[in-house]
Write a structure and sequence with these properties.
The chain is an alpha/beta fold and 215 residues long. The protein has seven helices and seven strands; from the N terminus they run ααβαβαβαβαβαββ. 44% of the residues lie in helices and 20% in strands. The termini are far apart. The structure holds S-adenosyl-L-homocysteine and magnesium ion (MG). The site of S-adenosyl-L-homocysteine (SAH) has 19 residues, from helix 3 and strand 2.
């Protein structure tokens, strides 16, 4: 092998190693700061679907520190991701820069309920909904017009730590929490009955769905 090839392989290996430690650091940061990043099993499932459906462009609702966005970009996708919390937004920008993925991930600092005009000219292969659980239906209705034919929608945290499952005991939950869980359950019913999509639910991570646009 020529020196150049070896140097290039070392460069690639160093890049992969750097990103692996970056991912581990992000997980650690999330744990220490109680940032609700996607669970390991959920992330694997998300990345499998990106591969399976050959997803190239993703709109993510709920960036947090950029953990899922960085993983999806490392899997090859271009990501537009929306975050309304300034501290999270700044943290995400920092992490994306550190990962060298500024050309693959665009973070919009705005409430996703108000962000349609910023993305209305774009098209996406996938919509990943992972922000305020009470607003899933709003996010879904607002952004599905931007989905390409055969595009998919993936939602995270549909079980909401078991509280949004059948027969969950909500006696100790606040009124607000109960209202949120009711909305999340209504959204699941809405997905099931939506004839433009074919939806499957998975007991993976904190509960996930995959909806495929029929036309
Ligand atoms: N997808 C991330 C985790 C997101 S946590 C990951 O797995 O790595 C949910 C994030 O959504 C939080 O940072 C929260 O501030 C943000 N969020 C909640 N409601 C939002 C809204 N209406 N618009 C934009 N961001 C929102
Ligand atoms: Mg989540």
């Amino acid at each position: 092998m020529t020196k150049n090839v070896i140097a290039m392989m070392n460069h690639v290996a160093a890049h992969v190693a750097n990103n692996m430690s970056l991912i581990e650091n992000l997980k650690q940061y999330a744990k220490e700061n109680h940032v609700p990043i996607i669970m390991d099993a959920g992330l694997s499932f998300l990345l499998e679907n990106i591969k399976k459906y050959q997803v190239k462009t993703i709109l993510e609702i709920g960036t947090a520190i950029g953990y899922s966005a960085i993983n999806m970009a490392l899997a090859g996708a271009n990501v537009v991701t929306i975050e309304r919390d300034e501290k999270m937004y700044q943290e995400a920008l920092k992490n994306i820069k550190e990962a060298g993925l500024e050309d693959k991930i665009k973070v919009l600092f705005i409430d996703a309920k108000e962000a349609f005009l910023l993305v209305e000219n774009m098209e996406f292969d996938m919509l990943f909904i992972d922000a305020a659980k009470a607003s899933y239906q709003k996010f879904f209705d607002l952004y599905i017009p931007l989905l390409k034919k055969n595009g998919i929608v993936i939602c995270d945290n549909l079980a909401f730590h078991g509280l949004a499952e059948k027969n969950a005991n909500l006696d100790n939950c606040s009124r607000n929490l109960r209202a949120m869980i009711r909305k999340l359950n209504n959204f699941k019913d809405y997905l099931k009955s939506n004839e433009n999509f074919s939806t499957n639910f998975f007991e993976i991570g904190d509960g996930m769905s995959v909806s495929i646009k029929k036309s």
